[in-house]
Hints:
The structure holds 3 protein chains of 3 kinds.
Chain A: E1 12-13, E2 16-18, E3 46-50, E4 58-64, E5 67-78, E6 91-98, H1 113-126, E7 138-148, H2 152-169, E8 179-186, H3 191-197, E9 206-209, H4 213-216, E10 219-228, E11 233-241, H5 245-281
Parallel strand pairs in A: 6-7
Antiparallel strand pairs in A: 3-4, 4-5, 5-7, 8-9, 8-10, 10-11
Helix pairs in contact in A: 1-2, 2-5
Chain B: E1 16-20, E2 28-34, E3 37-47, E4 60-66, H1 74-87, E5 100-109, H2 114-129, E6 137-145, E7 151-153, H3 157-160, E8 163-172, H4 174-178, H5 183-186, E9 196-203, H6 205-242
Parallel strand pairs in B: 4-5
Antiparallel strand pairs in B: 1-2, 2-3, 3-5, 6-7, 6-8, 8-9
Helix pairs in contact in B: 2-6
Chain C: H1 16-22, H2 24-33, E1 49-53, E2 61-67, E3 70-81, E4 92-98, H3 114-129, E5 139-141, E6 145-157, H4 162-176, E7 178-180, E8 182-185, E9 188-192, E10 202-204, E11 212-219, E12 224-227, H5 231-236, E13 239-245, E14 251-257, H6 264-286
Parallel strand pairs in C: 4-6
Antiparallel strand pairs in C: 1-2, 2-3, 3-6, 5-6, 7-10, 8-9, 11-12, 11-13, 13-14
Helix pairs in contact in C: 1-2
Amino acid sequence: MDRKRVPGPELSVAPLVEYPVDHKRWTPYGETRHDAKRQPEDMRPIYLKTGLINQANGSAYIELEKTKLACGVYGPRPIKRTGQGFSGKGVLNCEIKFATFSCAKRRSNMRDPQEKELSLIVTQALTPAVRLELLPKSAIDVYITVLESDGWGSCLSAAITCASAALAHAGIEMLDLVAGCSASYISNVPESSSSSTSGSSSIPPQIYMDADLEEEKYEQGAIVLAYMPSLNEVTHVLQSGKAESTTISQSVEHCVEACNKIYAVMHHALLESINESKNNSL
Amino acid sequence: MARLDRTRTANQLRPFFSSQNLLNRADGSAQFDFGGSSVLCSVVGPAEVKIRDEKLDRATIEVIARPLVGLPGIKDKSRERSIRETLEPLILSGLHPRTGIQIVVQTMKDDGCILSTAFNATVLALLDAGIPLNSILGSVTCIVDEKSGEILLDPTTEELSQAKSTHVFVFDNKSSISTTGAAAMDLDSESSPILFSDSTGLYTEEEYFKCANICHKAAQTVHGFIRTAVQKKLEKEYQQTHA
Amino acid sequence: MTSTSAAPSPAFTFSASTFQKLHPAEYFRKFISQGVRPDGRLLTGFRPTTVHYGVISTANGSAMVRVGGTTVVCGVKAEVAEPRLDSPDQGYLVPNVDLSPICSSAFRPGPPSEQAQVTSDAIDRVLKESKVLDLKDLCIEEGKAVWSLWIDVVCVSYDGNIYDAALASVMAALANVRIRKPTYDEGIVKVSGAQELDDDNSFKLNLNRTPLSASFVLFDTSLELLADPNFAEESICEGQISVTVDEEGQICALSKVGGGSSSPSILKECVDRAKERSKDLRALMQQQ
Lengths: 282, 243, 288
C-alpha cells in the first residue's frame, strides 16, 4: 500500500462497457480512417508551444488532437552520482510519466515497465542530436508527462518531438532538432476474406500515418521514426510487428516526409517563443 | 448540557499529566497526557546533521511523527510539518548553526486532540533537552458540536465524531508575560496572537474567533502547567545535586 | 525583471538581477517597502487565473487551472470498488496531488514529496470534513459495489500556491464529472457504451458546496500579508495562511502555519479577502 498518498480502495476496476446493438464500431475495411477527415498519409494537426513551465530551463507542450504531452528540461546541472568518477561527456536522462487519468484504464502511480521502455527509446532517439561532449560532468534531465494518450505510437513520436523542442528552448547545443513520427500498417481487407483468396501476403497493408488508438487496434505492425530533418539523418527506428521490407521502406519514406512537416512546426514554435520573450523584455 | 463523559463542563480541559526525562538515551524527553490521550516526545540535539540538510546560519529542525499503530502515513506527514514550522520561529536556532535538532513524536494513547497533545509534549521535551527557546507554547483543541452548536474544549474521540468543525490552536506565552498586570486585557480577542491554527469542518467567522478566544484562555492553564512542571523538575534536580 | 549588464563604475554596484541572486530577501524587502512586489503586483493582488473544463477526454471529469505561472491539470476517473465494511453504502473520494519533477527543480523523481503529501491531505480533509459530496450518491449496490472517484492532480508547472490551484482544479473537475449510469447484475457492474452522453444514460455529481481557497504568506518582521505567493515569495516568507470558504461565506478550512504569532485581526483580514477572492474565482468558473 502506498503510504505517501491518500489511501483509496485496495482494488478498483473500470466498469464493464456494454455496447448497444446498433453500435457502430470503426473498422479499417470501410472507406475512411477513424477520423473521417484524414487521408492515410495525413497526420493530425500539431499544436506545439514552448516555454510554458517557467521554473524549467526549457519546456514545451504538444497536442495532436487528443494526444497531449508536456515536457520540461532541467539542466545542464551537476551530475548527482559522484561515485562513477569523472565523465568527459554529459548525460541525457529522459523520463516519461503517464498521468493516472491519461488512458482509458486508470494507470498506477508507480513507474511501470512501459514507461521505462518509452523513456529509454526517447533517450536513445535524442542522444545523437545533443552535443553532450560539450558538457562534461553534467546531466540534462528531460521530464515528459503524458496528460492524455491516444495510441502509443503517436504518444512516443510526440514525446520525441516535444522533448527536442524543449531542449532547443533550453538553449542546449544540438546538431539538429529531432522530429518523431509514427506509422501503422493496417490491412484493408478483413482477415477471413483475404485468406480465402490467395494468402494474406498478396495484398500489401495500407500505411496509416500517425494512427490513433482505434486504428492501432487493427494494426499488423508499426514504425516509429526519429529523424533530424536538416541533416537528413535518422536517429532511431522502432519497427514492430510483421511487414514486408517494401512496406517498411515505404513507410520510412512517408515518415521522413512527415518529419519534415513537423520540423516546420517546431521551427515556427521556437521562433515564436523567441519573439515573445523579446517583446516581453522590451 | 452534559458532555459525553458526563464529568466535564463545556470549557473544561481533561486532567493534564506530564513527566520529563523518561528516556535516558535522548537529550531530552517528555510525555504529556490530556486525559486518555498521551504523546511521548524525544529530542536529540544539537547534534551532527546530514550535509544535505545543513543550514549555514541556523540549526536544522527535523520532526518525525509516529502513529499509535502501523506505519506513518500522510496524516503524520501533515502533523510533522505543522509541528516543525511552528517550532522553527520559537527555537533560537541561530545559536547552533550547522547542527540538527531531531524531534520524535510518538502517540502512546489516542483519545482525540493528538496534535495538541503532541505540541505540548514537544515543548516540554525541548525544555528538558535545554534547547534555547524564545517563548513556550500551549496548545488546545476545541470543537463545535453538530447538534447543540456548543463549543466543547478538549474533545474525546467520541465527541470528535459528532463535531461540526474542529479547531486546533497554539498560543505562545509572550503576550501573557508582557501584560501580566492587565490580565483582563490579554484575554480580549484582539490581543491573543495565534501562533498556529488548523481548522476543518464548516463554520462561520464568528464561531472561529469565539473558539480562538476560548482556546486562548484554556492555553493559559497549559502555560501555567508547563511552568510548574519545569519548576518542579528543576527543584528536584537542585536538591539531588546539592544533597 | 529588467536585467542590465553591470555598468563599469567606481562604486561597488550590481545589476538588479545579480542583487536578487545574492540577497533575495533584501531585494524583496526593497520592493515591499514601496508597496509593490517584484512581479508588479500589489501586496493584495492575485495572479491572473484561468479555468478550462473537460480538457482530458479519457477522464470522467477534468479541468485545467492556471494561476499565474502555476498550471495544474486535474482528472477524475470513476472506477468500481467494494465498499468498506463499516460504510457499505458509501463510495470513495481519493484526491492526490502529484508534484512531479517536470514542474520545478525543487522536486525530485520518486515518491511524493512532503509538500505533495501535505497538499493532498489538506484537500482530502476539505472534501470530507465539509461534506462537499454525499458519499452515498456514489453507491451502486449496497454492500457490493460503489464508485471510487480517483481525483488526481498533476502539476505541470509550479510557481507557488499549489493549494489554491489544486483545490480549484479539483472542484472544477468534480463539477465536470459525468458518470455513465451503472446496472448491477450478480457481481458485475455494467455501463452502457452509447456514444452520446445525456441525462438519461449518465449522471452528474450533486455537489453540496464548492469550497475555494485563498492563501497568503507573512513577510518577515513587518508581517506584511502577501496574497497568492509565487515560488520566490514562498521560499523567502515563513508563515502561511490558507482560508477556504464556500459560496455562503462559511469557512471550510483555515490553517495558519509557521512564521510567529499573528493577531486575530490579520486572520480576520485573510478571511475577508478569501471571501472576495473565492467570489471572483467562482464567477470565473461559472462563466464557462
